[in-house]
Amino acid sequence: MTSDAAYPFVPALRNPAGSPIRELFKYLSDPGMISFAGGYPSAALFDVDGIGAASAAVLRERPAECLQYGATEGAPALRQVLASLMAGRGAPVAQDELLVTSGSQQGFDFLARALVEPGSVVLVEEPTYSATLQALRLAGADIRGVQSDHDGMDVAALEAMLADPSLRPRLIYTVPTFANPSGATLSSARRLQLLKLVARHRVVLVEDDPYGALSFDGAPPPSLLALCASVPEARPWLVHLASLSKTLAPGLRIGWMVAAPEIVRRAVIAKQVSDLCTPPWLQLAAAQYLEAGRLPAQVAREVAAYRDKRDQLAAALGQAFGDRIRFALPAGGMFLWAALDGIDDAAALLPHAIAEKVLFVPGAGFYVEQRQRATFRLSFASTNLAQIGEGVARLARAVERAG
Amino acid sequence: MTSDAAYPFVPALRNPAGSPIRELFKYLSDPGMISFAGGYPSAALFDVDGIGAASAAVLRERPAECLQYGATEGAPALRQVLASLMAGRGAPVAQDELLVTSGSQQGFDFLARALVEPGSVVLVEEPTYSATLQALRLAGADIRGVQSDHDGMDVAALEAMLADPSLRPRLIYTVPTFANPSGATLSSARRLQLLKLVARHRVVLVEDDPYGALSFDGAPPPSLLALCASVPEARPWLVHLASLSKTLAPGLRIGWMVAAPEIVRRAVIAKQVSDLCTPPWLQLAAAQYLEAGRLPAQVAREVAAYRDKRDQLAAALGQAFGDRIRFALPAGGMFLWAALDGIDDAAALLPHAIAEKVLFVPGAGFYVEQRQRATFRLSFASTNLAQIGEGVARLARAVERAG
């Protein structure tokens, strides 16, 4: 094939940047590599038998429904059980507020299509999920960062931005609970302030909540969606994205969106033209699995394992780097966010880490502009407990080599 | 929830039109309804045992690969077997020309994102697949219809449009083999003319080919992709979309795109921000099924059944309407496209048909502008052979009522 074709790509795709995380995947094929990089749950914990049994049962009982096209909104059986699950999390939802998506990321993609035009202002907490930045860049958004700390998004800073009549954002994006990449959790006081703020300014707020169930110390804080019971005027402006990827299995690609019916209707149309429906077989298998009541025990296993890994990682980092390393202990989720004194740019450290056979994600890819290059993200979920100490020792050798 | 929210929807979604076909789905829950409407394959023919066995085997042998996140480009095992399948169809493809998509429609959606901006001109044969029109409208395209007849797109008419310097289209879209909705197949002479034309004008041509394998009279004509062996200068400009939806099962949502590496790379980035990957378990199950060599026998069963149904439908229509009905017999696929003398608008006939408990799709939804309202689409794939005569009798009563 000749390569001199000059395709009329849209501007956002003329010089596209791939995901900074997925660029690291090529190193994962090295069996000696220890990876703190991807946001992968632990495959060792997958409930393979439970998922296999549920999928075999629904294929046997409802083969045509499993294998035929399904409703774009989602399989009725799954929509019902997801509504129960949300009610159990303190957030009852009506059926016309609910859309099954192929992973929660697809929900954000459809929302961006419904609300974001080239040049639209979108506010995101910084640091933030890199694929969200990628989706917004593809949509041509004018992305602005809102600073955050270990209590989550700085709501006072957000308020100042919302008061600026030149901005008028289309969307605000946050991962308020056990955030990716920061591990931070929005405080209760800020949650209420945030809801009141979006209701007053009539701006759509996206609560991306894939990690909320992975709480290490008792129940997680109520989601923004659940808190709308106290701030009902915020409910039409809140879009809640959730997923089974971090609790059951990412390969099923089952997520869901809870939003006002008008927003769901637009997302359904985006889904009609994209993948038409999430595979009905996997939806029915997930519904069967959830109905059988297997998820709570599965989540409990994950929470116990991830908490141990977090503790192991934190202890190993403290031992290896002492006062040079700064991080706050995440209260759930999969990520530890750190900065090392004496390291100006974690990206420059990465080649040395790869040489030592350990992977992490440099912080720069999680920022819009004000990149804090000393930062980096360590995922503790998919690494074996036994590998964590060795991985940190390799990181320490990489820092020495870089020094 | 209050309903006075005024969301800043993008223009294409401000007054969205849902799919004209999916609007009919609500009537399918009536068990007495006979449907010639949706483009559904026959669920009675699904190889449930074969699919169940393949999926159980891969889950047993490679559980982590099935349930973890997978490569955005597609599972290596499936990509290899799809490359073999394409080679068997006379179109060898390299791995960097191939992307697994969640149904072939997702491939078109990603292509539209890569190449279509608001106002971009896109040429589509008329009548054409309604979801393609919907995707292009969402992208803000300036859609222009190219006339067609029973030999497919009128390539001379296309040539005149390409010669118009005010148009400069970003894309041309065609379903050249057993088309949806027309059932038409592009002639061999036009195929070669079309390839030479797009190479000369350096414009991307989308060959949507979900039906090619369902050929009733021997082998189908070579795809445009295969014919690029004779017109190699066209290959960089051709995008081929294919699917297992009409042959294996739509619920698996397995499609693929073959295109120049530069185009595939852009589609991969669109997929990274949308659904990240097609469910790896279903990809591996499909790969296992294809490797086991079960697809040809499955397709043979479908071809035999659909050919009988086409013949039954054609005979019943002739008997019921005589000279009043005009249609050409499709040589494959799932659709018969007809017009009835004395019917000015098939959409006005639809309520009477629904009252008689029979469904079809009025033709208007398949046109950009020059709607031939007397036309309508009948799918013969999912109806039982026994129901076809009764369905046509109901249609005849509906025509009487409408008269």
From TrEMBL, chains A, B:
Keyword presence, Transferase: yes
Enzyme class: transferase
One family name in Pfam for this protein: Aminotran_1_2
Entry's Gene Ontology BP terms: alpha-amino acid metabolic process
GO MF annotations, alphabetized: pyridoxal phosphate binding; transaminase activity
UniProt cross-references to InterPro entries, sorted A to Z: Aminotransferase_I/II_large (IPR004839), Class-I_PLP-dep_aminotransf (IPR050859), PyrdxlP-dep_Trfase (IPR015424), PyrdxlP-dep_Trfase_major (IPR015421), PyrdxlP-dep_Trfase_small (IPR015422)
Limits of the Aminotransferase class I/classII large domain: 64-395
Subunit comment: Homodimer.
Name this protein carries in UniProt: PLP-dependent aminotransferase family protein
Organism whose genome encodes this protein: Cupriavidus necator (strain ATCC 17699 / DSM 428 / KCTC 22496 / NCIMB 10442 / H16 / Stanier 337)
Lineage of the organism: Bacteria, Pseudomonadati, Pseudomonadota, Betaproteobacteria, Burkholderiales
